[in-house]
Specification:
The complex is a heterodimer.
Chain A lengths: L1 H22 L27 E5 L18 H4 L21 H12 L29 H4 L4 E5 L4 E6 L5 E6 L13 E7 L2 E7 L19 E10 L2 E9 L8 E9 L13 H9 L9
Parallel strand pairs in A: 4-5
Antiparallel strand pairs in A: 1-2, 1-9, 2-3, 3-4, 5-6, 6-7, 7-8, 8-9
Chain B lengths: L2 H24 L46 E4 L20 H15 L7 H14 L16 E3 L13 H18 L32 E7 L2 E6 L6 E4 L16 E7 L2 E7 L18 E10 L2 E9 L8 E9 L16 H15 L5
Helix pairs in contact in B: 1-2, 1-3
């Protein structure tokens, strides 16, 4: 009796086990590997990239390998303003600068906090544009530590709206016209290659920087971005950066973008102009009478 | 880019528009550059706001593939019709075709760089205007209204209620800063207006036409409408899913907007405006100010943009205006409006003031 009951229980248990086994989670994929994914689609059949996205790399401090670093004023700010360590997002690790350009990058870094707007002609000569709250350009906008929203509808345009200084750029799909004039966020023309949104960016301002380490390009830069859905919650971002004035060959960065998942999360305002006015304009303030 | 002049000229142009409208409709027109073309068409009296568009109702408004009314595209809200009806016009809410033609002609004449009367300063100002000005803003609204305000019936912003002592003080301080600015003697950056400081321009609702750069690019995706005003490149992301507003402690320069469709009309409400001095529309109180905006496509080429603002601690009653938005030529694009990045004028204004002080030119 007891044996029979036990056998029956074991039989039930055995019957249940395979079912449980089927529900067990698949093993986590290796880092950097994603299982094949077929994205949800818009009415036109292209992947739906709508959403609030954010990078979680530290490339805005430095595209290349970098150690943790103190902020510029540790004597007053302590650990506030300190920079995190991070691994290079550059394929091969290093940006292939021409010799003069590598020297210029180092000079940029030395003068990254030097601001002088007293002369129109030398206005942009020094200082990280981020420090001055300028629109960050492409690809820097993508890896700023702020989210951005992709707005994809049924028109010939896709909007990318970034939180940092409320900058925006319009991606013109299958567009012929070349960049009419240099712009801080450049001139973006898009096309689909399979499930990848490919954006061709030209017309960037030569004053744009790529990070706080002084990495830079000229106004001849040509950036080709690729946004590929990896899952409902991830896009792979890749950018090839070509600039014969500054680099010895084209180079590439890549990192995933993560969908912001908090309930009711939204793009907020980071209008930083008021935060920079003292830095930029204090020399022109009326001095108290002596 | 000369931002200061652009702002000043915007004000000047508006002032001219008001004067001209009065001149045309209130008395015999002064001599324009050319004679107004003879108008033979009988004037069509507009009984109700937007009535000129009513005949186009048979047209079916397009929908997006996901079923929302389709507002996507680049629109322009330029017009010469002033926000408020000049008091002299009393109850006259529309112009006849002939009056409207004369008004437009005179406005163009007043603003043209080809005039040489008025001295060198006026000459320079006109040349500047002529270069930067959006030619569309010479056109009166299609229904030939004498004001963008349609309620109250006199086309004027309602009278103010008495302001609290704190707000009177804040306004007096703002006025004093404006006086210093206009005298060429700003003492600090905060003496300059938010547009001159490149913080906000026409992107703060309600949207009103200015001298130039009157474009708005509307994007849509399932569950969202996004409006990108040309100045200053910000995106107003409007969720349509009925979610609550941000909590009261999270305020923004451009507020926090929620929307829904009522038939073919996008209805949006905005709250959570920052209260910084001079930021709010017409100096209203951000804790009591409310704004509702309605966007309705009325024909293939236009949107009726209607807004109602209320603030019981500022005005005696709410008021409403309608501004027509026209779809711009598809070949014409909206380009990046960078403002702060090359705001040379701000430095010129400030350093000019310091130079004047050194020279003793402080009167």
């Amino acid at each position: 009796m007891q044996n029979r009951l036990r056998t029956a229980l074991i039989a039930v248990g055995l019957a249940v086990l395979p079912a449980l086994g089927q529900q067990a989670p698949a093993p986590a994929p290796a880092t950097g590997q994603f299982p094949a994914y077929r994205p949800t689609r818009m009415a036109d059949g292209h992947p739906d990239l709508n959403g609030l996205w954010q990078a979680f790399v530290t490339a805005n401090w430095d595209l290349q390998d970098h150690e943790a670093q103190p902020g510029p004023h540790p004597e007053t700010m302590g650990a506030y303003g300190a920079g995190p360590a991070g691994q290079s997002i550059v394929e091969g690790g290093e940006i292939p600068y021409q010799a003069w350009a590598l020297a210029k990058k180092k000079e940029n870094f030395e003068k990254r906090m030097k601001v002088d707007v007293s002369n129109d002609k030398t206005w942009h000569d020094s200082g990280d544009p981020e420090l001055k709250c300028y629109m960050p350009g492409v690809p820097r906008a993508t890896y700023m530590p702020f989210p951005f929203r992709i707005v994809q509808g049924s028109s010939q345009y896709i909007l990318m709206a970034y939180e940092f200084t409320s900058s925006t750029r319009i991606i013109r799909m299958n567009w012929k016209q070349e960049s009419p004039i240099p712009a801080w966020m450049g001139w973006s023309r898009g096309r689909w290659e399979g499930d990848t949104l490919v954006v061709d960016v030209t017309g960037l301002r030569q004053e744009n920087w790529l990070d706080r380490a002084g990495d830079f390009h000229s106004d001849a830069v040509h950036v080709v971005e690729r946004y590929t859905p990896l899952s409902p919650y991830h896009l792979m971002y890749e950018a090839t950066i070509e600039d014969p004035n500054v680099y010895t060959r084209p180079w590439k960065i890549s990192f995933p973008l993560y969908r912001r998942m908090e309930k009711n999360v939204q793009l907020l305002e980071f209008k930083c102009v008021p935060f920079t006015e003292e830095l930029l304009y204090a020399p022109f303030r009326k001095q108290p009478a002596k | 880019m000369s931002h200061r002049f652009s702002s000043l000229m915007g004000i000047l142009a508006l002032a001219i528009a008001v004067v001209s409208l009065t001149a045309i409709a209130g008395q015999a027109p002064t001599t324009p550059a050319k004679k107004a073309p003879a108008v033979t068409k009988a004037p069509a009296p507009a009984k109700a706001p937007g009535a000129a568009k009513a005949s186009a109702r048979k047209w079916a408004a397009p929908k997006t593939p996901w079923g929302d009314p389709d507002l996507q595209g680049v629109w322009n809200d330029a017009t010469s019709t002033p926000l408020q009806r000049p008091s002299e016009l009393g109850g006259k809410d529309t112009l006849t075709d002939e009056e409207a033609a004369g008004f437009e002609e005179q406005l163009a004449f007043n603003l043209t760089r080809d005039r040489r009367d008025g001295g060198a300063d006026a000459d320079v100002n006109r040349a500047y205007n002529d270069h930067w000005m959006d030619a569309r803003r010479l056109k009166i609204t299609e229904d030939k209204r004498t004001s963008l305000i349609v309620d109250p019936a006199d086309g004027r912003i309602p009278p103010q209620v008495p302001l609290s002592p704190e707000r009177q003080k804040a306004r007096a301080e703002r006025a004093a800063a404006n006086t210093r600015f206009n005298a060429g003697l700003p003492e600090r950056v905060e003496d300059l207006s938010l547009p001159v400081r490149c913080i906000i321009r026409t992107d703060s609702p309600p949207y009103l036409p200015t001298i130039y750069n009157n474009d708005f690019h509307i994007f849509q995706s399932p569950g969202y409408v996004v409006i990108v005003p040309e100045m200053i490149h910000s995106a107003r992301v409007i969720p349509l899913d009925g979610r609550p507003h941000l909590s009261k402690g999270l305020r923004q320069w451009l507020g926090d907007t929620r929307g829904h469709f009522e038939g073919n009309t996008l209805v949006i409400e905005t709250t959570n405006f920052r209260g910084d001095d001079g930021v709010t529309f017409q100096g209203t109180n951000p804790s009591t100010f409310t704004i509702t905006e309605r966007f309705t496509r009325v024909d293939p080429g236009s949107i009726n943009y209607e807004f109602t603002v209320a603030d019981p601690t500022t005005w005696t009653k709410p008021w409403t205006a309608i501004v027509p938005w026209n779809k711009i030529d598809p070949d014409e694009q909206m380009y990046e409006y960078a403002c702060h990045e090359d705001n040379y004028d701000l430095v010129h204004l400030m350093s000019g003031a310091r130079t004047r002080e050194k020279k003793g030119e402080t009167k």
